[in-house]
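I have been asked to look over a protein record a colleague put together. This is what I was given:
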Amino acid sequence: MYQRTVIVGNLGRDPEMRYTASGTPVANFPVATNRKWSDNDGNMQEETTWFRVSVFGRQAEICNQYLQKGRTVLCDGDIRTSTYTDQNGVERHSWELRAAVVKFLGGQGEKGGGAAYEERSEGAAPAGAVAEDDIPF
């Protein structure tokens, strides 16, 4: 069986970097995705879904160095779900995307535009991926 999820959204805060017990770098950051539609009465509706994104290895270090709050990213990976009870006793659900690919969209401080960087956390990079030495920033 196979499961893959791709999201495009904006970072809710700067990435946080930590290391596993074995020394593997891990970057975590929240990404907000937005969906807009018209309801049956013609009223515009909007829904925001937050994802916790985790990135491992060299890609985590690059995300930590270059990403910042508000930046638009494309994240491709697998979803992990969890359920918890908040302070008010309400059951909540959260989604964590363990990203195998993170593409930076737009330039520094921009919220859109073309892909600036791609690297896979696992396995070889696909044809056409930008090499680390070719990053212009």
